[in-house]
């Protein structure tokens, strides 16, 4: 390259400098020389080459000992370029008639090392101007220039906010420069996670270039401006028996490590770390919870509802009652929300709540009153009533002639609880019949059945006995050869009630007729007493009475 009319050679520090002689080799050349000029202009010869003898001589110059090489075309090479090689060198060609000279300017360049940010601040505080660090670029030539960047944008100096100082030092032995740029900075909260870097700009043989440092992120400290309280729970709702963890946090950096927690019913705050744990909470823990910084500044609150569910079944457990008695049953619920209540009897869900005005055997069983809060997971209560309906044995006996006319079926219908034991005997002989068959015991009822073919009239006795009483009932059964009125085996409850009602009606009618006859007899007796023919009538009536008695005796014998 030609600079200001002079030849210029750009060299890289440490490489070989190659300088061709800018002159054309003339005819009659005797020798050629290279020299360089001192700052005061005096020459220092460093190399000689004869064109006739073809020998090369290097002058004793310490800076260039063992570093020089002069070729046949008078190109001078200097190994291991140094900053001190940046001089004005002159090529001289000598003939018998003339001496020609042409200078060459040597420029040496050295790329700096990658800049580093040293002496970094441990952290930055908002609203405070402090030293962020120093950007150092070493061993450059010529000296470089340093620029600071934040998030890829240049940081321009701003009074009391961005203060940049640049310092350049040179190594006297090598002539290389070290550039140091310090940055004082006043950060804001928004500078958290900001990336700071620096770039050194330098010149090389091919022009201007840059090298960037590794980015650095600083921990920015700023005070807490807001406090937040949270309820840490695995479920969205809280019930009695759960554990509650309160967490208080501040948005400062570093975050506060201690807080004051305010619990319902407590006048003073409880000093704790950022969490406060309550175990096995009860319903009285419902209320407003607060937390603040230890200096009582900045406070936040939240409301906690501890859900509860109480169930009271009256009566509960095992209850024994007599058949026909009344039993009031109540299942009382107390809860934090509307609860769902349902009844279960013997593992089957009931459509209505149980009510017993007159207990029957079928009312016995295991009753469960259960309630839940559907929106609160795991909150369920239940209580059990085991109802036992007891009754003394009740017996009704029926008989019927079987269709083959060869036997009769006698049935003893038994009610009672606990289940009565049934025994059959033959009245008179006292013998026990062991061939009875029993039906299934359901709702306090069952039947015991025997089949007989009596050759003569017989009286059978059915004995039913449980823990409460022993009941005995007998039934006359005619011989199989004598026809008799057959009775149905059993009746349902409705028919039984109707028969009972009819029996009561018949008894009432009979009692009424007897009363009427009694009144009529009394009136008649008074009338006869006053009659003048009392004696005659009495004799006649006595005769009639005797005849009537004989007639009645004859009739009774024939019936028998």
TrEMBL record:
Q: Which GO terms describe its cellular component?
A: axon; dendrite; plasma membrane
Task: Supply the InterPro entries for this chain.
Answer: CD80_C2-set (IPR013162), Ig-like_dom (IPR007110), Ig-like_dom_sf (IPR036179), Ig-like_fold (IPR013783), Ig_sub (IPR003599), Ig_sub2 (IPR003598), Ig_V-set (IPR013106), Surface_Rcpt/Adhesion_Mol (IPR051116)
Q: Which residues cross the membrane?
A: 505-527
- Keywords attached to this entry: Adaptive immunity, Cell adhesion, Cell membrane, Cell projection, Disulfide bond, Glycoprotein, Immunity, Immunoglobulin domain, Membrane, Repeat, Transmembrane, Transmembrane helix
Which Pfam families does the record match to this protein?
A: C2-set_2, Ig_2, Ig_3
Domain of life of the organism in this record?
Eukaryota
Q: Give the UniProt record's GO annotations in the biological process aspect.
A: adaptive immune response; cell adhesion
Q: Where is the Ig-like domain?
A: 103-212, 223-305, 324-386, 393-473
Keyword Transmembrane present in the record's keywords: the answer is yes
Kindly list the places in or outside the cell where this protein is found, as annotated in its UniProt entry.
Cell membrane; Cell projection, Axon; Cell projection, Dendrite
Q: How does it sit in the membrane?
A: Single-pass type I membrane protein
Q: Which PANTHER family match?
A: CD166 ANTIGEN, CELL SURFACE GLYCOPROTEIN MUC18-RELATED
Question: What is the name listed in the Swiss-Prot or TrEMBL entry for this protein?
Answer: CD166 antigen
Q: Which organism is it from?
A: Acanthisitta chloris
